[in-house]
């Protein structure tokens, strides 16, 4: 079966590697000069789950010397290609011994450290609520390829294809489910760093959703400076766009807030920048230049003069400005309040996933599911129903 496996992926994967290599050779937009190299930004520490990793053994989060356990490649066969991205190509497959359908994510040959990090994080989150379930890892030495094997929902549908068509009830329900996934990973000391509709899959019939693609995820260590070249442009938090590397879990809340805004106002994407500089401009055109300037001053972040001139001056816009006859049935005061608390330029002022789960906007969801939070823990992986 191994030779068949190689043959089946050869054409798709060769084209994939060639294309991604061509893209990576181009100068990325993130290389644009943003912050003044002379600035000495003030470090911040997450106000939630900041010390989680200090309570866990080092082998929970240490991945550089981590050695994954590999399953036998002959246990799997491929059925069809179902998608591809910048760093991977995805196939529907079959686990031959059990006759079960699976999803295989073939990772582009990148730094082994990055591959190990993704595998380690997925193992740490295995069984987590609404998080894609890693079943196995397969190594294909002849192609310098690693494949991640995931469980498959009964129906795998990209959330991006349906999230602007959902009813008001389903909009609240799925947003609540996304927050459960975020609170679970945050409570385990992990930031996703690429929250967007494209990284969610859904089974509408069974009302299940999974947060996928953990390739950019990382463990949160207080005071550590992280790479700002993460997240997709339309969902990048302001901290990334001003080159502030001392961010935390709240980066995921910004991404969630962008998804919330798109679903509520039926506007995709909500902040539609042409490059990183323009993305920041689109944000301040809504949230105001004053809020950004206060943020920069508070954390001693100095933008280059050219970017300051580009941003200009803009007043804060009311969320009501985005309400119209086509989306008003989705909008209420509680929803706007939640949005306001997610899309704060100051990352330290954003609501946490756990706090958002208790927000009034989700009162109907909690009542309907009979899961009023109170003291109930969301972090017991063994009780989670996962694919």
From TrEMBL:
<keyword id="KW-0547">Nucleotide-binding</keyword>
<dbReference type="InterPro" id="IPR008271">
    <property type="entry name" value="Ser/Thr_kinase_AS"/>
</dbReference>
<dbReference type="GO" id="GO:0051726">
    <property type="term" value="P:regulation of cell cycle"/>
</dbReference>
<feature type="binding site">
    <location>
        <position position="105"/>
    </location>
    <ligand>
        <name>ATP</name>
    </ligand>
</feature>
<keyword id="KW-0723">Serine/threonine-protein kinase</keyword>
<dbReference type="GO" id="GO:0004674">
    <property type="term" value="F:protein serine/threonine kinase activity"/>
</dbReference>
<dbReference type="GO" id="GO:0005634">
    <property type="term" value="C:nucleus"/>
</dbReference>
<keyword id="KW-0418">Kinase</keyword>
<comment type="subunit">
    <text>Tetramer of two alpha and two beta chains.</text>
</comment>
<feature type="domain" description="Protein kinase">
    <location>
        <begin position="76"/>
        <end position="362"/>
    </location>
</feature>
<dbReference type="Pfam" id="PF00069">
    <property type="entry name" value="Pkinase"/>
</dbReference>
<keyword id="KW-0808">Transferase</keyword>
<dbReference type="GO" id="GO:0005524">
    <property type="term" value="F:ATP binding"/>
</dbReference>
<dbReference type="InterPro" id="IPR017441">
    <property type="entry name" value="Protein_kinase_ATP_BS"/>
</dbReference>
<dbReference type="GO" id="GO:0005956">
    <property type="term" value="C:protein kinase CK2 complex"/>
</dbReference>
<dbReference type="InterPro" id="IPR011009">
    <property type="entry name" value="Kinase-like_dom_sf"/>
</dbReference>
<keyword id="KW-0067">ATP-binding</keyword>
<dbReference type="InterPro" id="IPR000719">
    <property type="entry name" value="Prot_kinase_dom"/>
</dbReference>
<dbReference type="InterPro" id="IPR045216">
    <property type="entry name" value="CK2_alpha"/>
</dbReference>
<dbReference type="GO" id="GO:0005829">
    <property type="term" value="C:cytosol"/>
</dbReference>
<comment type="function">
    <text>Casein kinases are operationally defined by their preferential utilization of acidic proteins such as caseins as substrates. The alpha chain contains the catalytic site. May participate in Wnt signaling.</text>
</comment>
<comment type="similarity">
    <text>Belongs to the protein kinase superfamily.</text>
</comment>
<protein>
    <recommendedName>
        <fullName>Casein kinase II subunit alpha</fullName>
        <ecNumber>2.7.11.1</ecNumber>
    </recommendedName>
</protein>
């Amino acid at each position: 079966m191994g030779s068949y496996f190689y043959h089946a992926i050869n054409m798709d994967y060769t084209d994939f590697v060639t294309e991604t290599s061509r893209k990576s050779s181009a100068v990325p937009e993130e290389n644009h000069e943003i912050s003044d190299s002379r600035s000495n930004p003030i470090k911040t520490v997450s106000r939630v789950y900041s010390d989680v990793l200090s309570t866990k053994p080092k082998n929970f989060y240490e991945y550089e010397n981590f050695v994954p356990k590999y399953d036998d490649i002959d246990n799997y066969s491929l059925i069809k290609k179902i998608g591809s991205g910048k760093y991977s190509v995805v196939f529907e497959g079959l686990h031959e011994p059990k006759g079960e359908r699976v999803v295989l994510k073939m990772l582009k040959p990148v730094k082994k450290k990055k591959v190990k990090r993704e595998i380690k994080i997925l193992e740490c989150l295995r069984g987590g609520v609404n998080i894609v379930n890693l079943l196995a890892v397969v190594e294909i030495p002849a192609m310098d390829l690693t494949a991640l094997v995931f469980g498959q929902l009964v129906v795998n549908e990209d959330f991006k294809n349906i999230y602007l068509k959902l009813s008001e009830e389903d909009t609240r329900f799925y947003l609540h489910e996304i927050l459960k996934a975020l609170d679970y990973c945050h409570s385990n000391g992990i930031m996703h760093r690429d929250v967007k509709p494209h990284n969610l899959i859904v089974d509408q019939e069974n009302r299940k959703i999974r947060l996928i693609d953990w390739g950019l995820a990382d463990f949160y260590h207080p005071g550590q400076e992280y790479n700002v070249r993460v997240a997709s442009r339309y969902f990048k938090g302001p901290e990334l766009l001003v080159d502030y590397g001392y961010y935390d879990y709240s980066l995921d809340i910004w991404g969630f807030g962008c998804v919330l805004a798109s679903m509520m106002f039926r506007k995709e994407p909500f902040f539609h920048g042409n490059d990183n500089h323009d993305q920041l401009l689109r944000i301040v055109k809504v949230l105001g230049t004053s809020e950004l300037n206060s943020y920069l001053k508070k954390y001693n972040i100095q933008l280059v003069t050219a970017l300051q001139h580009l941003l200009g001056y803009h007043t804060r816009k009311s969320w009501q400005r985005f309400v119209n006859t086509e989306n008003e049935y989705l909008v209420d005061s509680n929803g706007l309040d939640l949005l306001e608390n997610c899309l704060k330029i100051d990352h330290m002022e954003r609501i946490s996933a756990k706090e958002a789960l208790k927000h009034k906007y989700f009162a109907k969801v909690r009542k309907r599911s009979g899961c009023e939070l109170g003291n109930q823990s969301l972090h017991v992986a063994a009780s989670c129903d996962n694919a």
